Amino acid sequence: MSQRFEITSVTHEVGRIAFEWDDAGGTYHVYKDGEHIYEGTSPDFQDTDLLADTYYKYTIERHANDEVKDVIVMQTSALTVEKNADNPLQSLVITTIAAKTQVALSWERLKDTEMYTIYRNGKELAQVESNRYIDRDFPMDEPLTYAVYCERSIAQSEETFNNARSFIAKAFGFLYPKTTEKEASVEGFTIMKSIGVPSKLLVPFADHQPSSSVDNWDFRYKTFLEDDILENPNVISPNRYFKGDNRKFDPESGAYRTCVDIEIDYKNPVNPLTITKKVGESVALGLDKKVRERQTASDEGITLKPLDDKKGETGFHLEHAVGNPLTTSPDINYEVQAVFGENGTFDLTGFHDQSPNHEIYLRSGKETDWIPVHQSRSAGLAYMSGVTAYQYWRFSNIN
How many Cα atoms within 13 Å fall on the side-chain side of residue 226? Predict the structure, then answer.
């Protein structure tokens, strides 16, 4: 009999997930999203008729002498054939396994990515070439959030017209001496997973304290310019400088280029989504750094579309395209797709330009503090050109 109790293999197919675990002896029980679906002595299970783009949480218990001896929790999804070329992370299969001896992460390999950097609670743990990582030295009584980061060239991207875009991005790196060819043409991907406190997660199903139903979620996305004054990349413009927001990352700051707040209210099932859009004033300065013009851009480029909801979930697709009304320049572009569960789970994914600063926060109705979802520092105003590489992110949790 094995001394460990861990999942040893997971197979993903369209509509099917199969997995095996160490045979440590006794009787095994499997629960899926709170439903008891297996009891037996064979250390394997397969689940079928599964939906695409849907996380499933499995709890595997080992019983001996009328007691629960060990618990494993796994969250994963079935394979999706049709991928979103605009956002490669959206349908990516990501598997997270928690046991008392390990936290294991695996992810469907992104095309043409070679190296992955692993973080836990913001601290770098390792760099790996394989699309999996096992952490065996983790605190059991602290909330844990893991991140996986990788890069690839636009030329290797699956995005439409990627070859033309890559050529332009490389040229962009030569045209702007403060940038580099690599920065302009390299896409970044960040996958984040919050598993909470392992000691609270790894309890027998009968003793698990289910999260109280979440009445509402608050989602906040801000773009801002970190500097006080920024030089205009267009050297022939009389507007030589622009006023920035002069701040660091801060969910409560009133200084921003744009601010989008979305509330998800489950007490209003007919219209659960409410959006508030705000656009900061653009201020142009001359060569003497005195104010030349002031104007506020329209918020018409910020649109929200509800997703087809599954039971107990509400989702939306957010698109953002807001420009500087004082000069001919590209818009600040980003997109977000989000799904929120009444049980406290969430799955958020999106992408954005490399400029300006982007910050995203989340909180449930029972919380007062914002959870940082994604924070990205600007690479410079010129990176809003629309031909440079996007930054992609995904953040989800296990509850």
Answer: 15
Residue 162 has pLDDT above 80, yes or no: no
What CA–CA distance (Å, rounded) separates 399 from 384?
37
Domain assignments of the chain as residue spans, ordered by start: 1-82, 102-207, 210-381
CA torsion 293-298-299-301 (nearest 10°) is -120
Interval 142-166 mean pLDDT? 71
* CATH for 102-207 (3.10.150.10, 3.40.720.10, 3.50.50.60, 2.60.40.10): 2.60.40.10
For residue 322, which of 388, 263, 277 has the smallest C-alpha distance?
A: 277
Name the residue among 242, 222, 226 with its Cα closest to residue 324.
242
Strand 346-352 with 391-397, pairing: antiparallel
What average pLDDT does this structure show over 66-87?
A: 92
CATH fourth-level superfamily of 1-82: Immunoglobulins (2.60.40.10)
What pLDDT does residue 181 have?
A: 43
Determine contact, residues 287/240, Cβ cutoff 8 Å.
yes
Burial classification of residue 301, based on how many CB atoms lie within 10 Å of its CB (0-12 exposed, 13-18 middle, 19 or more buried): middle
pLDDT, tens digit, 9 for 90 and up, residues 182-194: 466 789 999 999 9
Q: Burial letters for 170-191: b for 16+ Cβ neighbours within 10 Å, e otherwise?
A: bebbeebeebeeebbbbbbbbb
Name the residue among 267, 264, 299, 300 with its Cα closest to residue 281. Answer: 299
CA angle 194, 96, 29 (to 5 degrees): 115
The residue among 184 and 38 whose pLDDT is bigger is: 38
Predicted TM-score (pTM) of the model is 0.88
